[in-house]
Amino acid sequence: DGLRRGERGRLQGEYPISLRPENTARHRVITEEGRFLAHAMGHRVHARVDGARLPVGLISLVFTDPAARGRGLASRCVEACAQALADEGLALALLWTDRPSLYRRLGFHEVGRERLFGVEARHVRRAWTDDACDLDVRPFEKADLAALETLYAARTIRAERERGALGALIGGPGVDALVAHDDEGPRGYAALGRGDDFRGIVHEWAGDADAVLACLEGFVRERRCVGLLGGPRNEGPLPALLRASCAPHENPFALARVLDPDVLLRASTAHLAGIDGLSVRRAGPDRVAWSARGHHLEVSEADFLRLILGGPEAPDTRTLGELVTEQERALLAASWPWPLYLWGFDSI
Questions:
Q1: At what angle do helices 301-309 and 261-268 cross, to 10 degrees?
Q2: Residue 181, SS3?
Q3: How does DSSP assign 3-54, residue by residue?
Q4: CB 124 within 8 A of CB 216
Q5: pLDDT (tens digit, 9 = 90+) per residue, 140-173?
Q6: For the whole model, what pTM was predicted?
């Protein structure tokens, strides 16, 4: 009632995967005399980046009854969710908010990079090729689902999804999805909108660049301008849009808190095997300890995250100082910042 103005069933429609009954153990609720006061939910996903697999916890649906605010109840629920996710062996807890200061004191820091493009018809006309004009664009149909799941699974940065999950997500309230077809079937798709969170924004897309651009053309024909979310890499339609002078607005990807620094380090570093004995461990609240060759170095969690995932400031491998050689530092710099990204259907 509090998050969706009393529209019963609305949240269930927006979160059909994470709100399934078998996930109830990840809810954390505070009650008082039988009355619900505060809530937060933790949800587990596996993120893939270039084949590396990272177990990640997402924290969402944080809410406090307005009459009970100012007592730290939501913070307690978030903390309990983070602890439950840590107990499952996950590497990171991620969340999204328009009030980042509320979560910084709970150990969450801005990480990564996300770009929002404002796409107009003129950008699409400049960006697409003759091949895009020949595609047939039409609304999503259930018969498209298997092909779209294959297109999504081909992304180098994505979340793992069980079979059929995309159908439940794309059928949620406020979602408008277009699919571009050629004679052999779907070549790409784009999903615009989701509940209250992505109005007017294409937050997930997959397939070849021309197909996604053809879907964007279908959206802007009706709306004049749509937002397009993209991750840190120039892939899919992004290079063509950049060439068409569609300049993005850059933001941090999410707020993150380290749950297991070693899992994050090993997933994100393709060159770790070539570096003698490099390891990390938690050294206390908001501190991470690096070790190698008998040397030790403590850094803040914010610096650790900035080094591996990037963020508002550029990462600096010189932080590692005497722990690694110049050659090893070059190997690490080739891995970081690791372009972790979760698309809209998975990121809230």
A1: 20
A2: strand
A3: TTTT-TTHHHHH-TTTTSGGGGGGEEEEEETTEEEEEEEEEEEEEEETTEEE
A4: yes
A5: 999 999 999 999 999 999 999 999 999 999 999 9
A6: 0.93
